[in-house]
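Fold sample X.
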Amino acid sequence: MNKEFNITGKCIPSLHYMVDTSAKLKAITTDYIDKGRYFVINRGRQFGKTTTLSLLTQALDDTCLMLNVSFEGSEALFESFVSFAEGLRGIIYKELKTKRSRFAGIFSKCPFAPLSFMDLEDRIQKLCQKSKKPVVLLIDEVDKASNYEVFSSFLGKLRDMYLKRDEQATFKSVILAGVHDIKNLKKKIRPESEHTTNSPWNIATDFTLDMSFHPDEIKTMLAQYEEDHHTGMDMDAVSERIYFWTFGYPFLVSDICKIIEETPLAWDSNGVDEAAKYLLAKPNLLFDDMVKNLDMFPELNSMTRSIVLEGASVPESNTDQIINIGKMYGIYRADENRKIIIANRIFQNTLLDYYSTKEEIKGIISRYLCEESQFIQNGILDMETVLKKFSIFMKSEYRDQDSGFIEREGRLLFLSFLRPIINGKGNYAVESETRGSKRMDIIVFYGGKEYLVELKIWRGESYEASGMQQLADYVKGRSGDKAYLLSYANLQKSPRQGGWQTIDGINIYEEIVAYKDKML
């Protein structure tokens, strides 16, 4: 059977092209399971948690007795303590019947009385005593249990068994997998008035392994595909470009590859850029889930908007609940300077589109975009004309605004202006690393070409000179020779002219966008 790229459910090595995660599985085994850790693999939606548990089960099946449990579709388990104990007994019985049938009888149904938590604990101890191999319990889709007190009691039971592991037989390791961590599970279980970060499972070890896919890991999946299809792709270049858009988010990595194969697009950097455009345009439950979480948590929404549109510099904090929620849902990550940024460029563009479509400016913008031909000539985007037209738009509609408004809304207004011009034929990416310096670098992709546009607020001649040099150096670092600068300036204080200039061999076009420009 021909393999394919999979974006739904568990990945199976014999059926799907997959990243080689053997190093990650070894790290989980060595750093957590071999040391008898109880821990939670909590990552965002579609981050490969179920696939990881499946591969871990296969890798350890010769050395451990692996009990793989899922709470997917098992809501009835949580109706009572009895139903949970009996339901879990039945799940473990089926697992043992398949894997270690000689132990299945330990978890056979009791004909005389309902199973209690104490009876369940006794059976677990008996299994662990009889098994010559250490027993490892894996529970997937733990979020399904998060609203039920009975599950909190079960966590407490596991905790008690862990603390008595020197006195009685018990699981060597317990792994829970889901989006939420144990602290957030506990907050969902307790009434609002009793919220606390204390957990009935406070013996859990923090799971810090990076589960995103790095370029060398993405390359292992491309190598499998190349062996079957002989495309002649430059696997280093393609894997780096996929990483550029996804930052290794597993679902996004596979989806871009799937789009390239099925469209079909070229297996090169341009093909990856086109696939990212397709991905952003199609319906996606992952994006829907991200928007739902923003709507659910207004403070998270406000912080995210500030990061995306205002260039807010948010330092990483392990005690900030909003930051932790954003990281838990996979929306945020910390950069090398421990600043909170959006997790990847795909999410970043999704959020930019989300905020721009919520604003009531599309009708105003449409009056300035009546003819596509003024921006596109022979399939080439005329970025100079785009910036000039945007400047006219700003002078006409927003010239009486103050600098605070420009800092809050200037980026959104430009991206809202740009989107319909390149919509369906081009794409853009925001360089988030530059946000903390009150500037935004946008890379626009159109017709196989890249256009670097920097947005900034003009703050004086000295800042202008150093900013121009920084931009020129940045363009050189990307092996380019041209860039565009959009400067928001208060022309009441200091009238300025834009135009082309050359800095160290780099051609830079600057367009001045006036606010507080009542002289015009």
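Fold sample Y, listed below.
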Amino acid sequence: MCEKHQHTRVGATLEHDEEHRREHRLWSRRDFLSTTGLVGAGSFFLGKLPMRAFRPSPLMAALTNGDQERILVLIRLDGGNDGLNTVIQRGNASYYNLRPTLGIPDNNLWALSTEYGMPLATSPLQSMWNEGMMKVIFNVGYPEPNYSHFRSYDIIASASDSDVVVNSGWLGRFLDTEYPAFIEAPPNVPPALQIGIQTNLVFKSDTANMSLAVSSPQEFYQIAQTGQLYSTNSLGNTPRELELAFVRQTANAAFRYSETIHDAYFKGKNDIAYPPGNDLAEQLAIVARLIKGRLGTRIFMVEIGGFDTHATQFDLHLELLEQLATAVKAFYDDLSFGNSGWEQQVLTATFSEFGRSIFENGSHGTDHGWGTHMLLFGGGLGNGFTGQYQDLSNPDPLGDPPFSVDFRSVYATILQDWLGNTPDLVNYVMGQKQFPIINGLVPPATPDLGDNNKCALLGHNPKSGVSGTLEIKYAMMQSGPLRLQILDTAGHVLRTLVDKYQEKGSYVYDFRPADWHLSPGTYQYRLQSGGQLFQREIRF
């Protein structure tokens, strides 16, 4: 039965040898390309860990200027985390029958409740659960799952349907919704940072992947100590050294965030000892130090790999869960040190590209499966469960139990309730699909942050399949008069595309320059509504 089950998923098992290895080769090529040279705005390493800095968004400006300072930290569990062995339904005979060697015995669990428990390896989280700083979302997935690491992660990152390829990520689209009314000049802090070695579609917008690059722990300390990416002090006057000095000076000048990272690194400090030899803990220690140093960044992403547990899973998975638990506990102990209150402002969420099969395979591991559990952490979060645990009582040999919670509902809830955005903006980021908000999952922002409840100019892109046409996207959070105009680079109004009263909602205006007798070149487009003005550059 297990063998039949495994062979239904191309790339899901080690037995699909070439397909599985091709997945990892493709991933590795992406990683290599993403960490060589200066790409876009660049990527760099903090400690020994690569980091990307992303351009500003209206949310970030609103948060910076507002009274609340809410931060989101995403922890990626790379490889496909086994949710069934992360949170266990206690006394479930079906679970132990399906996993005769992998099932975690009840005497090796600490109790989340009378019905659910977690392995003792995660016992550092027990105090967080008891103190109302942890929640569990059961069986998170999406319809028609894909069991390829590469494709499934792209689905999770882009928030797309499984049969639709979207080349931008949910946070990339979010970060690309700039509100010039909030942002009058380029920021001197990175609004979002990602630490880890993987390329991440999650931060890619329709037009750019906003990133910046450094590649070693020494380079991070170089930034932290001197505010420069590369040292030029030791270079002489030979032609080669002069050329190298020029290249390094150019790189230093392009790295716009070096000074603020330098300042935040020395203003902040880690007040507790993080577990040694724990890569995730090292990443979170950097995040905590930058938060406490008031860098001003609002979105962080870190990761821990190794969750592709096809063989000898039992000890390996417990070790990974222990690293996760000890790292998260240290992170929140650090944030709450001295009653600083930072733990109340930081929401942390785990995610993975998919779960594992409910069946144990012949190599004492599990293969790629459907839903997995997400864990949320944060002060004032409360504790409890959302969604329905997998029904293991009548297993299908050809597939897993269906998922319970669509991952996009989790994203939408975080965007709306934690980060304080209106449904219109959330629906835009989610591809104009209204995924149910999970009431009570996180403390809602009061008052709303981000778009000031009026309007937003969401951007533009070429219209797919229609030559010479651009789509200009905007949203009305309140009904009222709206004017959309084309200007020259000096700010003179050339054409008025829209000038009318519009009901609240999301809109796409099909702009064909030829119909307005505009020659190819560089222009601006401006949206005015509700006392706000938004303006962007456009080329055609």
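Sample Y note: The first helix runs from residue 2 to 6.
Also: Residues 2-222+250-429 form one domain.
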